[in-house]
Specification:
Mean pLDDT: 89
Number of domains: 5
Low-confidence stretches: 526-536
Strand order of the largest sheet: 5-9-8-7-6
Strand content: 5-15%
Shape: globular
Largest sheet: 5 strands, antiparallel
Number of strands: 11
CATH topology of the largest domain: Endonuclease III, domain 1
């Protein structure tokens, strides 16, 4: 953990470790820290091809914002702002990491520092003190660095006019945008774009953005996951085996209104932009773009450290063949936390196809049409308030029906009354704010909030934490598919035995879960397990 904003003493073990990484140009640490060179006043990513200065001539900072505040500007050769983000914010449970998850989602831009501090339970002054001590910069500086990063992305990968880039990246004025880009990158916005070329506009005017990831990257596994669970009207998905190749598009509700995006695997070859995801975007408000980018990055787990994950899992004999067959496996995240909770409640103890049918019925009945300018013919998943009202009316109608149950027009959710009642409690809690599910929570807090709702069990709480919180070290040992996968690979498949066996694989047990789910999909269900058990909604 960093103190004082950076490591600069050659006797410091952390400084020595990071210097070895920088000297070896290890690309998997790009985005996890930056190297500031005293003589040039430039900071670089660890893999920068430039000659590495002597150890006493560099300082390492945990964030670009800290390097900015110390008077350094970004390297024009390695473009440190173009690297994937740090996986540390998902691993860590402390205040600094929780704040970073919110800053990345645009909380400072939308609500300001006082609201950010209130969500974390601190005063603005104390939160700033914590972040400066841990990350070398306060919330405003961290948010400013995020804006600079998004501005660079838009300038170098999109066809958006320069003036529009300013507002899409979250700047309040073009002048502020120009000053920040010059200060951070040592170039004007126009010059920065000229160095990288201007992307051609799409035929329908959609914005193009490239999101980098660390290789290896199992993009096709993610697209197959989304295709199996895509809700008609909300999502359209195709796998690598389909005509036209892998593609995932959907609409999502953002603070400024609905947005649409289409994601495809990027071409990692010499003619492509590199490993990651290519996006086409249409949105109601351009200033929502940083929030959308942050959520898509989480959805595709683009900030993961696959080399570290595979290095640990791959040496386990029972997992070696799976890791070799699927290097760089990822954990799918969530674009909308409220939606994911609803999908988890309706998906527990049923097969994926049944959950998809039930959720499709909800979208048909309650989904909100999207303007044709954003995504013609598509619908947004209903809000928690709309769902709570509809399910509440259904419960009232069923309670008063006696022997004559309500017709299909009054029935939004089919299934056991207990599950319908649980969904109503969850939706009502999300709507009135008594149940808060977001990435800022610690694992313990998030699970406790969910388990406090009658009808929500440990599996649902763990699954929501896996997808929404996106923590890398979550195992679902009671999940039927997880146990089937363990049995197929010769791993103890009873919940206690699997938990004990997996303890040596911390902190990457979420990726173990993905490998077990993948193994279960290739193997008939074990006779001793319930075939219709909890099946990964």
């Amino acid at each position: 953990m960093d103190t004082g904003g950076g490591t600069g003493a050659t006797s410091d073990p952390l400084h020595a470790e990071r210097y070895r990484i920088a000297a070896s140009r290890d690309a998997r640490f790009d985005g996890q820290f930056v190297t500031a060179v005293h003589s040039t006043r430039i900071y670089c990513r660890p893999s920068c091809p430039a000659r590495t200065p002597r150890s006493s001539g560099v300082t390492f900072y945990p964030t670009s914002a800290a390097a900015h505040l110390a008077g350094y500007r970004a390297c024009k050769r390695c473009l440190p702002e173009a690297s994937p983000g740090s996986p540390a914010w998902n691993v860590r449970e402390d205040v600094a990491a929780r704040a970073m998850r919110l800053v990345t989602d645009g909380a400072v831009e939308r609500d300001g520092v006082p609201a950010l501090a209130a969500r974390l339970g601190y005063s603005p002054r104390h939160l700033t003190r914590i972040l400066v001590q841990e990350l070398g910069a306060g919330p405003k500086a961290l948010s400013r660095a995020q804006r600079a990063q998004h501005a660079r992305t838009l300038l170098t990968t999109s066809s958006l006019p320069v003036a529009d880039v300013a507002f899409a990246a979250g700047f309040g004025s073009v002048r502020q945008f120009n000053d920040t880009v010059r200060e951070v990158f040592g170039l004007t916005p126009t010059a920065l774009r000229a160095r990288s070329g201007r992307a051609a506009p799409t035929p329908d005017g959609a914005l193009r953005v490239h999101l980098p990831a660390r290789p290896p990257f199992d993009a096709h596994g993610l697209f197959a996951w989304f295709a199996a669970r895509a809700l008609p009207g909300v999502e359209v998905a195709a796998t690598a085996a389909d005509p036209g190749g892998a593609r995932y598009e959907r609409v999502v509700r953002l603070p400024g209104g609905p947005a649409w995006f289409a994601a495809t695997p990027a071409d990692p070859g010499p003619s492509g932009r590199g490993t990651g995801i290519d996006l086409e975007v249409r949105m109601t408000t351009l200033s929502d773009l940083p929030t959308l980018v942050a959520r898509v990055r989480s959805l595709f787990d683009l900030d993961a450290d696959p080399v570290a994950v595979d290095a640990l899992l791959g040496v386990v004999p029972e997992l070696a063949s799976s890791v070799s067959a699927v290097p760089g496996i990822r954990v799918p995240g969530a674009l909308d936390a409220d939606e994911l909770v609803v999908r988890a409640v309706l998906g527990q103890q049923v097969r994926v196809a049944a959950a998809r049918t039930a959720l499709g019925r909800v979208v048909d009945a309650l989904g909100e049409p999207v303007p044709d300018t954003v995504a013609p013919g598509m619908r947004m998943f209903p809000t928690a308030a709309v769902l709570a009202d509809a399910v509440g009316r259904q419960l009232v109608a069923e309670a008063g029906a006696g022997s004559a149950p309500p017709g299909d027009a009054e029935r939004v959710i089919r299934g056991p009354r207990a599950r319908v009642a649980t969904l109503h409690r969850v939706a009502a809690g999300l709507a009135d704010g008594s149940l808060v599910v977001d990435r800022a929570a610690t694992l313990d807090d998030l699970r406790a909030r969910l388990l406090a709702v009658p009808g929500v069990g440990p599996w649902t709480a763990a699954y929501v934490a896996l997808r929404v919180r996106h923590h890398p070290d979550l195992l679902l040992p009671r999940d039927t598919a997880v146990r089937n996968g363990a049995q197929a690979l010769g791993i103890p498949d009873d919940p206690r035995g699997l938990s004990v066996w997996s303890s040596a694989l911390a902190p990457w047990r979420s990726y173990l879960t993905m490998h077990l789910w993948r193994a279960a999909a290739r193997t008939p269900p074990h006779q001793g397990h319930r075939p219709n058990g909890r099946h990964i909604p």
